[in-house]
Amino acid sequence: MARNLISVKKIIGYLRDHLKADFKWGYYLTMGIFLAFILALNYGLHEFIPEMKGKTIERYLRREHRGNEYFVFHYLLFYGIPYYFGLACHIYFHEEFHLLRSKEFWLKTSFGMFVLSIDVVFYYHDYLYELPLNAADRYFLRRCAVNLVSYLCVFVPLYLFWKWYEDKHKIPNFYGLTVKGFEWQPYAWMMLLMVPLVVGASFNQDFSSYYPRIKLHRIEGMELLPQWAAIGTFEFLYGADFVWTELIFRGFLVIGLAGVLGKGTVLPMASVYCARHFAKPLGESISSIFGGYILGVIALRSKNILGGVFIHMGIALLMELMAFLQILVIKG
Questions:
Q1: Which residues contact residue 9 at a Cβ distance below 8 angstroms, ignoring those fewer than 6 apart?
Q2: Residue 50 per-residue DSSP state
Q3: Among the four 184, 204, 207, 217, which has the fewest Cβ within 10 Å?
């Protein structure tokens, strides 16, 4: 118990020290107004544009422009605007204008946005819908493939970049993906604190329309696997996908850029991390700002992302569990 308290105090110390070094009223106020604006735009713009048919901007991009030869540029803007706005604010309020002359700054930040965009625009797994199988089997395979895309689009390019470009003395581990120095106890306490919040959110209509991520009525009549095995397989792949989410956001955009930006990596990352959640319920997008910020500070100070993996995977699977329980209660 004493060790757990020490670990929790260490994390609180990380946050306190980071805020002390990074906080400026103008910087945080400007970012707060900007994030409130893009949240309102994403979730409210469809009220004024009938063509969007009730979709958020993110969902509109995916459904209406997927397959377009310029699709990747749409997402470079979609992610690049909140990310570079955050970087511009950091540079201005901390008077670090020398970063604009740094080749490494431009190389790494643009590479990070490119990897994020490619991970979203990759759509070739949609051809699974053309397999000579029944509709339930095709749906199941496609849903599983969605969670395997990041192995190709995030893990491979980041690993090659780390292997061939990074100075191993500065970044000895694969952007913090290591068990070295990892203490799981404080993250278990953080997960316990999240349980009542997730349970409460599960009664929201937006939550029930988005979760579970595999729709039970669409895997009825599967021939490849029994339904219980299909659910288990999907949830395993869904949970594992958060390893690569943490790798790009807390690993590359925080640990990988710390040598260039220092404390300035965290808030711009939290900004683009919020945009990553724009297809999800509004409450989840808002909470992603604070969650991304906290996990970013921890990653920056500890040089380890396993805590983020633990939290991220745990919350995601807890949301899935609550969604299944809600379905069972309704059916009951």
A1: none
A2: G
A3: 217
Cα distance between residue 284 and residue 50, in whole Å: 25
- Residue 178's φ and ψ, nearest 5 degrees, are -155, 150
State the angle between helix axes of 185-201 and 2-22 in degrees (0 to 180), rounded to the nearest 10.
80
Contact yes or no for 52/60 (Cβ under 8 A): yes
Most distant CA pair in the chain, distance: 63
- For the chain, the residue count is 332
* Radius of gyration of the chain measured on its C-alpha atoms: 20
Residues 6+ apart with CB under 8 A from 209: none
Beta strands in the chain (DSSP E): none
Residue 263 vs residues 5, 28, 29, 110, 316: alpha-carbon distances, Å = 25, 14, 17, 19, 28
57 vs 4, 60, 82, 102, 313, CA distance in Å?
42, 5, 14, 33, 26
- pLDDT tens sequence for the chain (332 residues): 545 444 778 889 999 999 999 999 999 999 999 999 999 999 998 778 877 777 888 888 877 666 676 788 999 999 999 999 999 999 999 999 999 999 999 999 999 999 999 999 888 878 887 889 999 999 999 999 999 999 999 999 999 999 999 998 889 999 999 998 788 888 888 888 889 999 998 888 888 889 999 999 999 999 999 999 999 999 999 999 999 999 999 999 999 999 999 999 999 999 999 999 998 889 999 999 999 999 999 999 999 999 999 999 999 999 999 999 988 876 55
Tokens of 17: 């020290």
Rounded to whole angstroms, the Cα distance separating 194 from 190 reads 6
Contact 218, 139 (CB under 8 A): yes
Mention every residue, 6+ apart, whose C-beta is less than 8 A from residue 117: 72, 75, 76, 78, 79
